[in-house]
Amino acid sequence: MKKKIRQERELEIIEGFYQLAKEIGLENASIAKIGKHLDIPPSLIMHYFPNKDLLIKGLIGYILEHYQLIYEPIIKHLNVSHKLDVHVLVERLFSREWNLLFDDGVFYSCYAMIFREPSIRAAYKDLHLTLRKTLEDILNQDTTFAQQDTRQLAEQIYVVVEGAYYYLAMIDDENEYGEKLQYFKKQVLGLLQEAFNA
Amino acid sequence: MKKKIRQERELEIIEGFYQLAKEIGLENASIAKIGKHLDIPPSLIMHYFPNKDLLIKGLIGYILEHYQLIYEPIIKHLNVSHKLDVHVLVERLFSREWNLLFDDGVFYSCYAMIFREPSIRAAYKDLHLTLRKTLEDILNQDTTFAQQDTRQLAEQIYVVVEGAYYYLAMIDDENEYGEKLQYFKKQVLGLLQEAFNA
DNA sequence: ATATTTATTGAATGTTCATTCAATATTAAG
DNA sequence: CTTAATATTGAATGAACATTCAATAAATAT
Q1: Is A167 exposed, middle or buried (0-12, 13-18, 19+ CB in 10 A)?
Q2: Per-residue buried b or exposed e for B136-161, using 16+ beta carbons within 10 Å of the residue's own CB
Q3: I need a labelling partner for B198 at 20 to 30 A (CA). Which of A41, A178, B33, B40 fits?
């Protein structure tokens, strides 16, 4: 049971790091500030994460895990039985409820690191492949879709979802936001119906 | 003609900043390092950009301007005359030639700032609106497309293009990259043909 | 109960950071 | 040619940075 304290402290530190990065930006979240935020000395952080790179890797692991944890079940629990309700699927893909639990700023700050850190790139890719695979499995449960190239379909759906989130993040106005969202939902619906009628 | 020196120096500094950020990452490109890279004292940088925020704003302006400068003409010079060659359009939207001139790492690092800087968010939005508008204008030149909702179509096309670039950045393997690219081209082609036959 | 390992503390390290300042060189204006 | 404005330099600032270390406290193993 020696691992317990270590495990808890590591998680506490990473969560504090994430929370602080959310507030002041990843680039401003120094070890000293994380320490102050958690009311522990910086040296204790370095005890568990011997250098900052490891701490950042830890944060990214945490973020990707949580991204998957809140995103996957939303589309996983569709209760498919031969026939899939495509409208429900689309609604869930674009449901923003989980966005309240997840900070896009930290996510994209970390994403920007994929360009100079192969291990981070691999971790991000892994997440995105998993999400696609989940959707593919769901489509395959419907007898009609199962006859199609569901892997390609899942890919095409997600590229719209991800492009949409990327773009929607720039929009402040609520009405405009809603309008664009409608566009993108219709677009995904189009992909699904096209495959359905093929 | 006193403005000349100032103009040139400011541009030189921002270009040096961009170049260095490309090499070592935006978060590591300090004023001292930019100075060393350009062989000028840090104080000269501060003479033209009184604080680092202004320097970053300058960099973002530079990036967005160049993004537009290399992206826009690629689709603008389609030579539309009533009939638009959709295949050429798709090829150009996904042509990676300009990507050699443009660093995605710096672009996304700056993008991540939209979440905590309204002025940066506005600048990014402005760029994306302009690109969409250009495409819309091109579609409108074709008599068939002009009867459709070209604004929505342009939006839907770009959301795929942007989602595709976001996703493709994670892929190292050349073959896999090419395969996915095919998917996304087909997807945009689908949108165009669907509108064409409506 | 003692020994050993791990957790935690707080002070100190040298380095790098953005920024300031006064001094000098260059340029443009009168 | 003189003056005023701008450009450039180099040295100096204190604050913040990641990291180290020795000392103490707590937990676990023998």
Answers
A1: buried
A2: bebbbbbeebeebebebbbbbbbbbb
A3: A178
List the A56 CA – C4 C1' distance (angstroms): 32
Q: Which residues of A56-90 are buried (b: 16+ CB within 10 A; e: fewer)?
A: bbbbbebbbeebbeebbeebeebebeeebebeebb
Distance A47 CA to C13 C1' (A): 17
Residues B46-62 pLDDT 10s: 999 999 999 999 999 99
Tokens linked to A24: 């002041």
Q: Dihedral of the CA atoms A58, A59, A60, A66 (nearest 10)?
A: 110
DSSP-derived 3-state class of residue B30 = coil
> Residue A102's pLDDT is what?
85
Residue A152 CA to chain centroid, in angstroms?
20
Q: What is the pLDDT of residue A24?
A: 96
Nucleotides of C under 7 A from a protein CB: 6-12, 16-22, 27-29
How does residue A129 score in pLDDT terms, banded at 50, 70 and 90? very high
pLDDT at B35 over 90: yes
H or E element, residue A73: helix A52-76
- Residue A179 and residue B175 in contact, taking contact as beta carbons nearer than 8 Å: no
Instruction: State the Cα–Cα distance between residues A127 and B72, nearest whole angstrom.
Output: 32
The helix (H) or strand (E) run that includes residue B177 is: helix B174-196
Over the range A102-126, which residues count as b (16 or more CB within 10 Å of their CB) and which as e?
Answer: ebbbbbbbbbbbbbebeebbebbbe
**Which residue from A111, A164, A184 is facing B108, i.e. has the nearest CB?**
A111
Positions of strand D less than 7 angstroms from a protein CB: 5-12, 16-22, 27-29
Binned at pLDDT 50, 70 and 90, residue A74 comes out as confident
Mean pLDDT of B66-71: 86
